[in-house]
Amino acid sequence: MTEKTSIHGQWSSRLIFILAATGSAVGLGNIWKFPYIAGENGGGAFVAIYLICIAAIGVPIMMAEVMLGRRGRQSPINTMRSLAKEENANAVWSLVGWSGVLAGFFILSYYSVIAGWALAYVIRSAGGVFNGIDTVGVQAVFNDLVGDPERLLAWHTLFMLMSMAVVARGVRAGLEKAVTYLMPALFVLLIVLVGYAMNTGYFAQGLEFLFQPDFNRVFYHCESVAGIAQCELSGSPVLVALGHAVFTLSLGMGAIMVYGSYMPKKTSIARSVVLIAFLDTLVALVAGMAIFPIVFANGLEPGAGPGLIFQTLPIAFGAMPAGQFFGTLFFVLLVFAAWSSAISLIEPAVAWLVENRGMSRIRAAAWIGLTTWVLGLGSIFSFNLWSGDEYKLFEMTFFDLLDYLAANIMLPAGGLLIALFAGWVMSSQSSRAEFAMGGVAYQLWRVLIRFISPLAVVLVFLNAVGII
Ligand code: PHE
Q1: 258 lines ligand 1 (CB under 6 A)
Q2: Is 341 in the pocket of ligand 1 (CB under 6 A)?
Q3: By C-alpha distance, which of 60, 101, 65 is closest to 83?
Q4: Minimal CB count within 10 Å: which of 27, 47, 136, 375?
Q5: How many Å lie between the centroid of ligand 1 and the Cα of residue 23?
């Protein structure tokens, strides 16, 4: 067989692939979402379940996605179609690609709104707004921002334009370089924040919250109603943990598949994937270690929701020497982390428009950007005009609903189908040849992808809807 390459280009080296995929994986999911959902779901036990999901479900599915992408060398929709043909399976498998494109739209639409908060915080931090700020002050800054739809709209628009600009130019031109320097810088800054957290006097309490599993807290979901704790048995935190493991590794929607399609042939998929998953997990845990001590030191609520990092970290920056500088830098880097994830959310759709509609990358990016921007209005209003109960469905705002649907349903379902395709539809000759991996490692992957990952996803789904 002659070696296929993608019409969209190829990463210049293995290292660049790893950086790009890590750039996609490490994003708001790690620094903004992980701490707040860990807080909402009781901490340690949730974190333990999340780690198990990363290892047993995330890593094998990520290997499968990269492998399928590199074998197909096209947009996920066309890759799934052509691989299905190659294996004499039904072309309906291309629906995996379609659902991925839709999930990408959904996610980017609210992702961009939250990235907009980070942009707004760059300006506030640089202007010294956080110097010496206390809990009440920081909550006022946050509420002022999210309560103002016009301001949110301006930041959302800016972030969408930034993302479209990079996608339009092609991934190689801008982002490869940016990612090389910015990711390590972000990590160093997170370590600085952990250093601050160590001195709050609440470090041990933060670690205990994150790493000491108390399974009662996960299975009994408690809410305080008029000051009285009301608890009910619920398996939904497990679904949230699974959904987040898939979300944080950018799986189930074609982002990693399309990045795999630009991967050089002679690169070990297994080793690259393990490294990416390790780095992604490390960033999330370090972010948690920075945030929870600050939460406890300031009497804040771990379950404060999506505003958590925006209401905790400014207190740390406000109190530390040169905090104005470090704070500004931190939010700049957070924007970059979100940026390198955002482009991977639209790359599958852009690649398809270029392949099937003959569009230029610029036009494709513009169309997708516009559609996503409009959808983002719903998430903006969720924090102000539409925050009332009359606008909620299943007690969720538009933003909550979109996040729940995409991250907890569509991505795990996409991951499940990818696992079934790679494990059952594709012949073992094909997958073994693509991995260029033999022996125990291959067997282990095959058992995980055929049995463990699909079974786990199905069980979690059935449990979440209350069937088991
Ligand atoms: N992994 C990204 C994050 O953690 C989000 C993402 C999901 C990116 C799916 C691409 C695809 O922020």
Answers
A1: no
A2: yes
A3: 65
A4: 136
A5: 9
User: Cα angle vertex 111, ends 110, 115, to 5°?
Assistant: 120
Strand, helix or coil for residue 222: strand
Dihedral sign from CA coordinates of 76, 77, 81, 87: positive
- Dist. CA 232 → ligand 1 center (Å): 31
**Partners of 113 in the beta sheet?**
none
Report d(CA 36, CA 383) in Å as an integer. 16
Beta strands in 79-135 (DSSP E): none
Which residue has its alpha carbon closest to ligand 1 atom 11?
250
Q: Whose CA is nearest to atom 6 of ligand 1?
A: 250
Q: What are the residues whose beta carbons fall under 8 Å from the beta carbon of 111, sequence distance 6 or more?
A: 27, 28, 338, 341, 342, 345
Q: What are phi and psi of 396, to 5 degrees?
A: -115, 145
Alpha carbon distance 139, 122 (integer Å):
16
pLDDT tens by residue, 14-34: 888 998 999 999 999 999 999
CA–CA distances in Å: residue 256 to residues 58, 110, 307, 381, 395 = 12, 20, 28, 31, 32
Q: Is the pTM of this model over 0.85?
A: yes
Residue recorded with tokens 């997958």: 431
Rounded to the nearest whole angstrom, what is the distance from the C-alpha of residue 342 to the centroid of ligand 1? Answer: 7
Per-residue pLDDT tens over the stretch 46-57: 999 999 999 999
Angle (CA) 453 222 402, round 5°: 55
